[in-house]
């Protein structure tokens, strides 16, 4: 896509990807005093006497990273060049930063007793944020954008294995016949379909399976 003038942008939402700067412009929350907290530093702090304050500050950093991602994504339509933008937002996901109204006064840690309360609160909040973001992207875009909205995994705490893989997998494909989509599509074919529809490629669809 770069060969036809596309910019690549990665907006972090709590997930730093190694070496992403080699491939895309990275937009990330700078944190307190412009410092970024790596997963390694957070894990190290969690195993020392600094754990309680580190967990609190790390929670604020994680929550603000998620909120930053929504703000940054809302500005992507203002970029003049054609843009491929990817973001991985860790919500709903423990630790539970949000309730249905926004940022929690106290962050719920990851534990069995907190899963239902934390998950539902995060889900209600993030659903509202996603709906608002998509409306804003559509209203700001001079060219109707292609939008793919996917989960990265299903309900990991339930016993039924198939639910570990069942995800939200939604598409906005402006100007195209959506009948090419089908109920059992998995992410392995998402971009094959997009490229075939919009970039005149002829990628063969792969078998949709989850293991």
Quick summary:
The protein is of the alpha/beta class and 211 residues long.
What does this structure look like?
- The protein has 211 residues and is an alpha/beta fold.
- It folds into 2 domains: 2-145, no CATH class; 154-211, no CATH class.
- The chain contains 4 helices and 7 strands, in the order ββααβββαββα.
- The chain has helices at residues 39-46, 51-75, 115-140, 190-198; strands at 7-13, 25-27, 83-89, 96-99, 102-108, 147-150, 169-172.
- The strands form 3 sheets. A 3-stranded parallel sheet has the order 2-1-3, covered by helices on one side. It has a two-stranded antiparallel sheet with strand order 4-5.
- α2 (51-75) runs parallel beside α3 (115-140).
- The longest helix has 26 residues, at 115-140.
- The radius of gyration is 19 Å and the shape is globular.
- The two termini are 30 Å apart.
- The model has no long low-confidence stretch (mean pLDDT 83).
- Kindly estimate the percentage of residues that lie in beta strands according to DSSP: 15-25%
Please outline the major beta sheet. Answer: 3 strands, parallel
Mean pLDDT: 83
What string gives the helices and strands in order? EEHHEEEHEEH
Radius of gyration based on Cα positions: 19 Å
Overall, the morphology is globular
Low-confidence stretches: none
Total strands: 7
Number of domains: 2
Kindly report the spatial arrangement of strands forming the biggest sheet.
Answer: 2-1-3
């Amino acid at each position: 896509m770069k060969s036809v003038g596309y910019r690549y942008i990665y907006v972090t939402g709590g997930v730093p990807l190694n070496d992403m700067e080699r491939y895309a412009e990275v937009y990330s929350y700078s944190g307190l005093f412009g410092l970024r907290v790596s997963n390694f530093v957070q894990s190290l702090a969690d195993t020392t006497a600094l754990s309680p304050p580190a967990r609190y500050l790390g929670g604020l950093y994680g929550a603000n990273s998620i909120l930053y991602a929504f703000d940054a994504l809302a500005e992507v339509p203002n970029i003049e060049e054609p843009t491929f933008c990817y973001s991985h937002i860790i919500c709903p996901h423990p630790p539970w930063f949000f309730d249905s109204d926004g940022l929690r006064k106290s962050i719920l840690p990851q534990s069995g007793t907190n899963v239902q309360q934390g998950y539902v609160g995060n889900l209600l909040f993030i659903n509202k944020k996603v709906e608002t973001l998509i409306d804003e992207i559509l209203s700001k875009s001079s060219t109707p954008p292609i939008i793919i909205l996917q989960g990265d995994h299903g309900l990991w705490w339930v016993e039924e294995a198939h639910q570990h893989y069942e995800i939200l997998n939604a598409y906005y494909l402006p100007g195209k016949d959506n009948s090419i989509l089908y109920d059992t599509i998995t992410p392995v074919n998402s971009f094959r379909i997009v490229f075939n529809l919009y970039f005149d490629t002829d990628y063969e669809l792969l078998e949709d399976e989850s293991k």
